[in-house]
Automatic annotation (TrEMBL):
<keyword id="KW-0539">Nucleus</keyword>
<dbReference type="InterPro" id="IPR036093">
    <property type="entry name" value="NAC_dom_sf"/>
</dbReference>
<feature type="domain" description="NAC">
    <location>
        <begin position="8"/>
        <end position="158"/>
    </location>
</feature>
<dbReference type="GO" id="GO:0006355">
    <property type="term" value="P:regulation of DNA-templated transcription"/>
</dbReference>
<dbReference type="GO" id="GO:0048731">
    <property type="term" value="P:system development"/>
</dbReference>
<dbReference type="Pfam" id="PF02365">
    <property type="entry name" value="NAM"/>
</dbReference>
<dbReference type="InterPro" id="IPR003441">
    <property type="entry name" value="NAC-dom"/>
</dbReference>
<keyword id="KW-0238">DNA-binding</keyword>
<keyword id="KW-0804">Transcription</keyword>
<protein>
    <recommendedName>
        <fullName>NAC domain-containing protein</fullName>
    </recommendedName>
</protein>
<dbReference type="GO" id="GO:0003677">
    <property type="term" value="F:DNA binding"/>
</dbReference>
<keyword id="KW-0805">Transcription regulation</keyword>
Length: 198
């Protein structure tokens, strides 16, 4: 379902850091007082990655959406599988405020599944990173319960040049080597292995 409020105006590029995603978006999602315009939509995490277009917030080649925590990440034709990589997210004051898990989309039914190039980064909030003296009220206890109900997801498709086991999103330029460039680079590697005679 296309919704214009999830599209960024011309000239704007949504490129938050991990810390900003946790502190300014995920934390605000769970708080009782909204802090930002609702530009990131709520979606079902059991969507196929190619179904996110027109539903999630798109910026560059990355999709952003909130979803409820759900251990069952099975879709109609596949599933999101964790790869066992979880990274801590720290604030500028070196306080742990969240974690980031990596998942990869697989097509098929177990045990016959095929890994795709679609990667999901799932951001979870760490409630201990927000502890203050004023956080002991019943309102805060309700808030702590809601912290574990929501996650923020960033989904993107890996480029072929990133390799099979590379899930880093550091290079977000969207540039991809052509097949001809890849052939030339592989020839260079072969020449290096052979070595030149002295």
């Amino acid at each position: 379902m296309e919704d214009a409020r999830f599209n960024l105006p011309p000239g704007f590029f949504f490129s938050p850091t991990d810390e900003e995603l946790v502190l300014h978006f995920l934390y605000c999602k769970t708080s009782l007082i909204p802090c930002h315009p609702n530009i990131i939509p709520d979606l079902d995490s059991r969507l196929h990655p190619w179904e996110l277009n027109g539903k999630a917030l798109l910026s560059g080649n990355q999709y952003y959406f909130f979803t409820k925590v759900n251990e069952n990440r099975t879709t109609e034709n596949g599933c999101w599988k964790e790869i066992g990589v979880t990274e801590p997210i720290f604030s500028t004051f070196d306080k742990k405020v969240g974690t980031k898990k990596y998942l990869v989309f697989h097509i098929g039914e177990a045990p016959h599944v095929t890994e795709t190039s679609w990667v999901m980064q799932e951001y979870n909030i760490c409630s201990s990173g927000f502890g203050t003296a004023s956080c002991r009220s019943s309102r805060r206890r309700k808030h702590d319960q809601s912290l574990s109900q929501w996650v923020l997801c960033r989904v993107y498709e890996k480029m072929r040049s990133e390799g099979v086991n590379c899930y880093s999103d550091d290079d977000e330029s969207g540039s991809e080597l052509s097949w001809l460039d890849e052939v030339y680079l592989s020839l260079d590697d072969d020449l290096d292995e052979i070595g030149m005679p002295n």
